[in-house]
Specification:
about 290 residues; eight-stranded antiparallel β-sheet; single chain; about 25% strand; 8 strands; about 50% helix
Length: about 290
Amino acid sequence: MTNVHDDGKNEFLEATLSVPNQDQIETAVKNYQTSINVFFSTYEADSKLIYCFDKFNVDDEELVNAAQDILKRSNYEVSALNGENIILFNEPMLVSEIIVSNLPYDEAAKNIRLISHSWNQKKSISKITKSESVGAVGDNKGVFTTQQWDTFEVYDHVLGIIIPERAKFQKLSATPIERILSDSKHLKKLQSAYANLKHTGVESSLLWQASLSKAKDLLREGSHHLTTAQNELHQLTQAKEFAQEDLDVLDANVAKLKELDEELQESVAVKRLNRTPSQVNTQAALLKQMI
């Protein structure tokens, strides 16, 4: 039931919903992101940590032997990678993002697949977080071309990445898992940032739950108000209809009375016109006697 205060304010009409502090959430996310990003470095195709195979050939014994130590721990069979465009790391890496160019036009084919440890399920990423046009150096004819570089956000620990056929790997941001584990001082900062992020997330979740619960209560109360208003409107409508019926009856009765009055006046006039002179004299004499 809605309460009305002494100052006339209605709790239902004056109600507000609490919203989590967006700045606080963004700050917690930013701090955590900064703590992670300290570890990351940019790697290109010529890096010693990366092996790039634009068309992996399982029949190439030397190639397979080079990749065998990595792939034997992965969730992909070597034979399943035949003909794939893959990037392998010589040790487990935490990858934040990867940038590729020359993606296929088919939207369904615009995805990357993660080569993870054998106990992980296969995972693909299709969301492109950023696209930009990058200019290339002109040729001897003065012709300049541009390429579109597309960024996939990963933030996962992987042994390698499969990119679309004919796509070209440009660079990625990553860090060896071992580096994170060995830097105990910064790892503590990362754990602290994560704890703060988690705490902020829990607080925000609880606040949202409380606001949602209050919103549901307000909706129920609003529904009650609406039902009450509809009932009152129905009663007023009925009262108006009854009053209109009474008014119609009264108008009809007044009309009938007017008709009777007119008939009576006509009847009196006719009687006066129909009296004989002797009747008039007799009535006059009677009036004198009464006087």
